[in-house]
């Protein structure tokens, strides 16, 4: 184009030469070119004879005027081509007046490149500290425009950022490749599942700019310190991008291109804000991601990055003038190359892959070429209309930054394991099993005694009545006859064979341990000799054992009912809920005595100690569990939690870090590590831990969805779209990440008061505005990401320990809630902490859940908050939060179950009954049904609805039988005058716990009713010994004793 005096511009089309031309009338026809545009003929060329080789030199120029204000506009240039028609002039025949012509062909010329500008070159640049405080500019020039249609291959080589390489393939960096990776694993802004489709289109179907360059920079030790400080202060790093048109200079200097002063201006000046904070995470050496491009505005850039100068405009204007193809020219380039290679902090810029979104190539071209006059300078600093087109087009740039060594070193797994081993004392050696000859003989005696008792029982069964009649009148013949009959019965019933098998193991131990016979005998004679000797020894030892048997031992003993570890855990749980902590501790200790090497038993006892706020003993239990298995994640986490509660922060960091190292996919481990860093006021590492936790939570939920899809068949497209849009940082909802920092007080009471005030204010705001509070918002690039804006802080107060007697263990009936479909990393952690009864730590996580963009007040949140208030006996607040939970999820059985517990504890049994009945009427059970049945049955007994009580307690006995369930069933049956069933149920209760005074009391009532004086007096004696507290029940027993005339030995 050439500028003309008028308001328009002249567009000239020059046809220099034609090739492969053939005519209809011979091989050397006469031809001419006609140019047409917008249905207007621009002109005809001279008539040129085609050479025998088929070429013709036309040197024909035509033109038209382009005027954006009217006539031929930029829109005409964009969609209307120029037609060049090749016409043959036929020879004149005789008497022919006019020339005849014949069209040979037509060429179509697209004028769109005129709008894009000649030789457009995109350039990207940023600065990093290199020599102390001095910055080193890194530039990536001459991005290549790629048309859509196919994706860039991976891996593909990275290229040197210089232009004077002549050898083919030498511009590729050896052993350096761009490998790409899943979008979800990137650290940029477009790494959510909902961005995948758009990025696939932009990086495959649409036009894009490709650099594929890698530039390196050396950082000396002082520069490393400066780099760390600037990242911590600024967080975001500006990466500038601009478009620089190249102009070929006149002949005589062919082969060179340079910018004229008039045209060396910045156009389409944009900036991407790269979050460099991940480089301060321990062990992180690489960040890669896609970052949105925004218009470069000084005020916004300074607010976000604290940078006062532009790399292109204010610092490196000479770089624009020296924009050789592919080269990087800077004042520091030679110094950087000459540095000693042994110095150890290189920084790499890799895979700078600016990929404009659809339309971002064409639209800027139209904007720049349609103006009346050339651009005279940078747009006003407060307004950048060209750069705004980046936002409208959704332009983004993909880049990778890699360090040779991490700025913050990470502890090695071996070091963490060693530190944990140093902190946890080694477990004591296992008790040596007693053995040897003495133990073998002792076991033989025990078996002889057991078999002799069994034979005597069989004899008494067969001849007991006969012996009672004859007493001392039995003769030897009678005894011999009884002996034969007994022997016959033992053989016929198989008991004789069972006795032999029972004795065999003890005999084998004697042979091996006393006689040291472990190999086969060499001869038959040697075998017979040994058998004779062994027989004599066994008979002698049999007599010794029989002589040791006392007459009392011969009497039948009461069989003990063995309770399993699961039953003991249930009994301990019941004792906790009933605030009988002494009995609960006894059950936990019994489990430990039975299986001291079972770490789950130590964790359960430690959790019980946490509930009673005996933190020292809880720490001992958790450390004991960890000593049994130093790779057990829950033990590590609980040791870390106790270390925080006891203010041993250095140990806590070791425990949490080791847990994340052993199981990097554990959401709770990363979240607890982030909470620890929050206590330490380490905002960057806190953000790192929370980000990793959300990343693992998203991956787990996606994997669960994929597994579900495979099991159920084809997934509905709409549901899949909803699923992807619901995946956001820190939670499974839509939205972007925002780090929340809350320094909540260490005491539960103070924390709950803060949460209560916040909820009250939020409720008022919600009622006034009729809008939901804490709505999810996406990240706005115009808002600064400084820590002061990102983190919400509250002033911590001193912890005030609360007595466990002032609280209630009734937190547990609603304790183990299932994770809902929408969850956050904080709610996951709350579930873990509530399960292990670390209520002292829950308040901090509740504060984060309340302020988390993906969390906020939810049904689960209000349920947990209500439980914490029930612990404090603050029933009014608990009822308020349960009402909120019911409004959010009216059909949640856990809500109604916990409301029932609330009313039961506050003495409102009628409301509790209604809530319990509603809970058991749901198709889906509440998380903990045991105490719902127990308390509902007790209410039925109080209201004398004995049939309902019997049915309720029977359901509890089928689900999880315990002393209390059988006791309730026994009471209901007794009140219904079903004495046989009542005695059976009470006997079961007594077998599971013979220290329950109420069980002995009802057994005494049953025995008085059926007239069994001895059993009635025995049961009454144990009831008095165990100090029955129910005065009404004691008075009922005394009344019945007076009625029947027995049962109280003191009469």
TrEMBL record:
<feature type="compositionally biased region" description="Basic and acidic residues">
    <location>
        <begin position="340"/>
        <end position="358"/>
    </location>
</feature>
<protein>
    <recommendedName>
        <fullName>Cilia- and flagella-associated protein 70</fullName>
    </recommendedName>
</protein>
<dbReference type="GO" id="GO:0005930">
    <property type="term" value="C:axoneme"/>
</dbReference>
<dbReference type="InterPro" id="IPR052628">
    <property type="entry name" value="CFAP70"/>
</dbReference>
<feature type="region of interest" description="Disordered">
    <location>
        <begin position="766"/>
        <end position="788"/>
    </location>
</feature>
<keyword id="KW-0677">Repeat</keyword>
<keyword id="KW-0206">Cytoskeleton</keyword>
<comment type="function">
    <text>Axoneme-binding protein that plays a role in the regulation of ciliary motility and cilium length.</text>
</comment>
<feature type="repeat" description="TPR">
    <location>
        <begin position="930"/>
        <end position="963"/>
    </location>
</feature>
<keyword id="KW-0963">Cytoplasm</keyword>
<dbReference type="Pfam" id="PF13181">
    <property type="entry name" value="TPR_8"/>
</dbReference>
<dbReference type="InterPro" id="IPR019734">
    <property type="entry name" value="TPR_rpt"/>
</dbReference>
<keyword id="KW-0969">Cilium</keyword>
<keyword id="KW-0802">TPR repeat</keyword>
<dbReference type="InterPro" id="IPR011990">
    <property type="entry name" value="TPR-like_helical_dom_sf"/>
</dbReference>
<comment type="similarity">
    <text>Belongs to the CFAP70 family.</text>
</comment>
<feature type="region of interest" description="Disordered">
    <location>
        <begin position="340"/>
        <end position="387"/>
    </location>
</feature>
<keyword id="KW-0966">Cell projection</keyword>
<feature type="region of interest" description="Disordered">
    <location>
        <begin position="708"/>
        <end position="732"/>
    </location>
</feature>
<keyword id="KW-0282">Flagellum</keyword>
